[in-house]
Design a protein that fits this description.
This protein has a domain of 192 residues: 3-Layer(aba) Sandwich (Rossmann fold). 38% of the residues lie in helices and 12% in strands. Helix 5 links the parallel strand 4 and strand 5. The longest helix has 21 residues. It is globular, with a radius of gyration of 18 Å. It starts with a strand and ends in a 7-residue tail after the last helix.
Length: 276
Amino acid sequence: MKYLIFGNGYLGNKFKDFLADEAEVASVDIGNIEKLRNVLEDKKPEIVINCAGKTGKPNIDWCEDNKDETMYSNLTGPLVLAKVCFEKDIFMVHLGSGCIYQGDNDGKGFSEDDVPEIASMPSFYSLTKFVSEYMLNNFQVLQARLRMPLDSESGPRNFITKITNYKKVINEPNSMTVIDDLIFAVIQLVKKRKTGIYNVTNPGSITHKEILEMYKELVDQEFRYQIINTEDLNTKAGRSNCVLNTDKLKNEGIEIPEIHKAVKEILKKYKPTPTQ
């Protein structure tokens, strides 16, 4: 087998659908070292893709109330998985998060070399993602940072579905990741056997209002929403609103569509669920 995917959720199944017969999803606790050893010995993959982790349901506020589970899934699990991959000389891909910064870094966007301050982490979720990334970056692991994933298929993990289910939204510029472009970029990096951290977001930034105005134009002209100040959010966990620099990915010869163009193409195909 070429690819073994850990994480039987939104991202894991998107990768599985794309890779088809080349991949399989393993329903194994990545923090259990003996079970990992057994499944990797049985499947003998060339490449492991870790899509497992806790993002919280319905949102990251859940992580503030369940820190033990969040730490185990987002920090302990990836490190245990990496250890077993190293033992068996298997190339490992880890899907990380760019939700560890705030702002746009004076218009430059945050690069892979910009180290965030732990004290400024907006949430416990962000802290676990940063610490796991920092630890894994000491080893030969490919880490793909994504943010606010979206695609043309309605679902609870799709940022378009999320934002259109809120009647009150903030309006901050953010980097975002189109899932099809994420998968394309990760596979290209795997073919090159690249390791280290890569920001895998679509170039540029986009605001919540820009997305919703496109949604009104292309999907539902009757849709209504209200913009509120970020400070007025009633949440337990702080939210990361940030822009990432994607020059490193581009310098690898991997180009994906600018975010406004990508969102527009997605919305042309997007169908809301009946409950929206």
